[in-house]
Amino acid sequence: MNYLSINGEELYSEVAGAGDAVLLLHGGFCSLESLRGQFDELAQNYQVFAFERSGHGRSADINADYSYARGIADTLAYLDAHGLQSVHVIGYSDGAIIGLMLALEHPQRVRSLVAISANLDPAVFTPAAGNGPRLDSPPSSAQGEVKPDLERMHYGRLSPDGAGHADAVLAKLMRLWTSEPQIDPASLAAVTAPTLIMSGDRDSIPPAHSLLIAASIPGAQLSIVPGTGHGLIAERPELIGTLVRDFLAQL
Hints:
It is built from 8 helices and 8 strands, in the order E-E-E-H-E-H-E-H-E-H-H-E-H-E-H-H. It has helices spanning 36-42, 68-81, 94-105, 150-158, 166-177, 207-216, 232-235, 237-250, and strands at 3-6, 9-17, 21-25, 47-51, 87-92, 110-116, 195-200, 221-225. Helix 2 packs across helix 3 (94-105).
């Protein structure tokens, strides 16, 4: 296994392919396995980089709460460790939030951005909007059929902390998701990277919120994936892969 020392933590990393650099950022309580299809497909035409944040996948947990600021710092350190000045960023959920903030705060590092199921603040999950705080691995399909919790299964199989530590990770994630991020939509006007915003039409991120994000970023594209919830990357992987590759090919 390949680990890198990032800000004092040993984080699992994978690199494959050749060509322009693409960075994949996984969601909360996810591992790289949630993006495996995209990783393998993109590696046919790009050099793909991915790492698992602390407490996720094969990376051990930390003795502290999570924050998006730490996610950004670890991402920058990861890019520096590979000597990457700028990359195409593809992020899902928590990874999409980190991607948005990276494009906003460190524009020179982001060549383009695909943000899948991002939100700007926790208010999007209010009961009035018909949503509650989400897990990045969906408990059910868009049709309501209960599915196994695949990410919990991956956690139990991959985590060096053991399957029993999952609840501690989820508790920290719930604190993160109910307090962060706090991104002013108006601030997104400063994003200069070509951007694709994507979410499911039955996502816990309402389509109107995704539209707000896209409309706030100059020139951003918007894709609402039909028949999918917050687990859209698992529910329609081929369609999402096509949308992502078409977007990158336009650049």
